[in-house]
Structures
1.
Amino acid sequence: MLERDAERPPHTCCMIDGTHYVIEPDEPNSFFQGFGGAKFHIHFDDGYEVTTHNLWCQGEPEGYWKEKFPNNAKFDWEWKKIGTGEYLVPKK
């Protein structure tokens, strides 16, 4: 992930609450988009904002790698335990 992030254009990957995400181009006519095409407003720490319907979760870096991926953005969603799984849902 670290190598790929370095090759990506600015503001196309982010760390939010310890989880790594990649922002891919919106594909309005595609059936295959991150999070089923849900709308996300991402606020980067440097003031840049992105709205996307194609956000992909890459997971949480662990151990030694965690420090290599500092948080750099926020959004109005949160991981919530529902039943036996965890789901990303809008914050209330």
2.
Amino acid sequence: MQYEQFDPTKMRINELRIQFATIRENLKHKEEELQRTSEELTELKNKPEKSIPRWKMGLGAGMSILIAFNAALVSVGFDC
């Protein structure tokens, strides 16, 4: 039901009441949805962040060292 297509000046009082009740119900549902969404957002903001496991950090550091060592060997290989 599109609200823009209705002309309130040409509608009867019962039609206006029905339209008003429909709009009020839609607004009520939207307010509930907004409240629920804001509660979920607040809950997510208050949730502690997950820390990265130490083994993943160690693996990343080890890979960085291997890549640096590889770059050094390639550099030495081009010089010879």
3.
Amino acid sequence: MVNLFGPLPRETRQLLDGVPALIDKTFPLPGRFRSKLPSDIAELSRLLTSGRGERGLSYLGRPNLLSAYLRFFLPWNLYRLCRLLPGLDIQLRANDAVTDLGCGPFTFAAALWICRPDFRGIPLGFSCIDRSGPALEAGKKLFAALAGENGPWKIRALKAEIGAGKTAPGAALVCASNVFNEMYGDISRCGAETLKHNAEKSARLLEGYASGTGESALLVVEPGFPRCGEFIGLLRNALIERGRRPLSPCPHDGACPLLGCAGRGKKRWCHFAFETEDAPRDLRRLALSAGIPKERAVLSFAHMGRRESAQAKSADSELRIISDAFPLPRRHFGRYACSKRGLVLLAGEEGAIGNIGFGTLANAVFKKGERDAKSGALLAELGQG
């Protein structure tokens, strides 16, 4: 079994633990404003969720909201990416180009520096695109404080709307983290056709930034709520139609078993959750003071490669765990999983099933022809390996 979200290595955890202090040092906050920080965080959280209609396009241009973002949402986004990126097969070589769409304060570049030491000595060129000038300026300062000003990575900040005045195609990696749910407004209220149209539009946009050499990859990360998970599934379909193949999390390149399954039992969507006990202590304390406790982090994502570079074929027995454990009859427990055969209900004893990490790639032995009466999922037991 391969755990997608393994524990943070010691060095990564130490660097993440130092992020809150680094931000305070880089962006000093006068004492008279510090007492308002929890309420500013709570307000920004509202504007990013239930109050999307009030947010406006330039919300990070407001100093109090930018401060709240830098001190709270940025470190949490770094933490989520640092849990995800080590488990992905990211292929970057010397002098490769990386394009980060909707980069904010260079979040992806900072996370990659923190959690992938194998890339720190490689010369890379980043094009970081965002419509917020203050966020880009903050990114320049933060990355210089984190990695130094004379490192091998060269970062170019571009103030622009995504898709307008863009860089020439040629990126080996194009990433978009927490972008499309903002680009399309309140994505949770998009109808099915609108969501599909937006996914197809996003696929064209991403391909426009990618390299034409056949070796480029795309990485899209979104919040882990239902509509974002559905969007990721539709985006995956649109990219497959354009010659892409899933590198992760999908263990196959067939139809997504979670799209359109809402009519049968509880709604399911592609997302991954993990405990946050290894997140920076100061960050967890700030979350409590803002009334936004974060005991778990959740995300949806798609890592896509070209046909010749992706694992287009997978074993019939291979599946990805996509749910928490839940009780079944006869003292058994189950986990839903994704496979090339479709949705799977993996069942077994509590210890064996409950100890599998969310997102783990596992092998299963299918019960021939048997399906779960409630969900319609294929029934399987944990296999060897």
4.
Amino acid sequence: MGVSTRVAAPNGLLFVNDLGGGTIPEPTGGSRIWSTQSCVAVGCKIDCEGETQVTLGKAREVDPGYEPSFDDALETPGRAVIVSIVPGEKVLEATVPTSSTRVRVWVNHPSEPDGIIIGLE
């Protein structure tokens, strides 16, 4: 099922990382999703243009039925995944059973999505 919220992201970025934090990736050209072993940054709609719908849950429950834009492992030693915006404001949280979690991210637009789904496994 997952949990959802609408958020106005001040710099058009969402961060997905362990409860204890993570190393923020350096944005590069091309994709709007960047990652390190401990953090995934996802570009979204900037706050002055509106809110972004964010959903977090088990991948099998939130999978929209098309290929994810991101699919990789995330270090989760604290056994919780946090979705936050700058300046470190938590918007969603989910517990996970292991210290490494497969994270899949689906977006509804390649450059400025206003719908982001984060599936955990």
